Amino acid sequence: MPLLFGLMTTDPTIDLYDCLQKIRAAGFAGIVNFPTVALIDGKFREALEEEGTTFDREVAAIKLANHFDLFTMAFVTNEHETRQMLAAGADVICVHLGLTRGGFLGAKKYISIDDAQKSATFDRIPIERGVFDTVKTFKRGSDDAAQAVGSSEKISVDFLLDYVAEHYRDKISFAALADGANISRTYLSARFKEDVGVAFSDYLLSFRLNKAKELLLRDENISCKEAALRVGYSISSSDYRKNFSCVQVTNPT
User: Fold this and answer.
1) Which residue from 91, 84, 93 is spatially nearest to 69, judged by alpha carbons?
2) Rounded to the nearest 10 degrees, how much is the dihedral formed by the CA atoms of 169, 174, 177, 179?
3) Cβ neighbours of residue 114 under 8 Å, at least 6 residues apart?
4) 35: CATH
5) From CA 19, how far away is CA 68, in angstroms rounded?
């Protein structure tokens, strides 16, 4: 039976990279973001978010777990969280609506854990295992000889490269990515520059410039300003003209 590890990814005392390595080495099939901050609301939730304990950290953990080839199940409580976890590549989405009896709604219809245990059945286990195996098959694709993931340092850099490739159109914060992975910003920045050869900010700018160049070459009717917007570049900054002269296609108008 596949066994998932319930990981409190917002725990500030853990190193997420090391933790995921240990989870995989221990034989767990994957992780689930439970306990989750999504179950907390009100002023306490606001206080948690102010000090950095956010659902975004759980999203980053699910994203990173995929690089370890771990099965991922994400607990969510609303549509926005669902979209975040889908974008992160979660294999299974579980909408948490509380502990209630099937077909019954309302707080008065709750059941205790003892009652739930008595009425539970193991008939679903073969089905759940089948679902797990099927999802893993699709996740692995045709690569039956997938190589083991390398060191945590290599994974951290690959994670950043993949994230830029997938989200270059969006606002990207290096600090948020480092914090979400519970890794030192200084260390990650130095490691990225050592492996890639340039700083993260320079790599991101170059990536966006190349994407803009592709757009301009492909469509003569598109302006440099529009190309910049499409690739996630801010045109409000004073260095817009200077940076986009590097596209070497046309000057921004």
Assistant:
1) 91
2) -150
3) none
4) 3.20.20.70
5) 11
Distance linking the first and last C-alpha atoms of the chain? 61
Residue 74 is part of which domain span?
A: 4-140
Looking at the DSSP assignment, which residues form a beta bridge with residue 2? none
Give the pLDDT confidence score for residue 51 in this predicted structure.
80
The number of folded domains in the chain is 2
Mean pLDDT within 107-122: 53
Look up the pTM and report it. Answer: 0.45
Domain contains 149? no
Whole-angstrom Cα distance, residue 67 to residue 58? 15
- Those residues with Cβ within 8 angstroms of residue 249's Cβ, 6 or more apart along the chain or in another chain: 213, 216, 217, 224
Q: Are residues 12 and 97 in the same domain?
A: yes
What are the pLDDT digits (tens) for 194-221?
899 999 988 998 898 888 888 888 888 8
